[in-house]
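To: structure desk
From: M.T.
Subject: fold request, one chain
Message: Could you run this one when you get a chance? Sequence is below, nothing fancy, just the single chain.
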Amino acid sequence: MSNAFLYRMPAGIPGDVSRKDSLTVEPAVIGATAAAEFGLAVQLDGSTGTLLPMASNASARGLLVRPYPAQSTTTAQGAAAPVAGAQADVMRRGYMTVKCTAGTPAPGATVYVQVVAASGKPVGSIAAADDAGNREVLTGCTFMGAADADGNVEIAYNI
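Reply: Done. Structure tokens follow.
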């Protein structure tokens, strides 16, 4: 049995680097409070040198790259999830597929990062709309197009 795509191919998998030619990725260790998913913005804990979920008024270190084939676990919904203390890759510059949790992405539009957890919107998740203190602008980041039916969309970060 095969799938038919009548209108559009899926945009990708959150946390996947979408263009390998324009890329800067560095290794890091996931901190005690791991990000909930791959493709989320993370910050660097200055005292431990580990990655943490974004906090208000923090500078993003980058976006958490989905590893293949290992170093993750799965959530109750079956999605890959980072493991605290594991080695991880952080995209410092490049293009990545992310899940847009709010708003309607458009090419060149401002990208927001969730800094306060909300239902279905983990800290570090990407959005296309502001939310009065719960989201902040992700500096150096723009949407490359519209989201697919699952909310996945490509972003450019520090390009």
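Reply (cont.): The CA atoms of residues 37 and 81 lie 5 Å apart. Let me know if you need anything else for the meeting.
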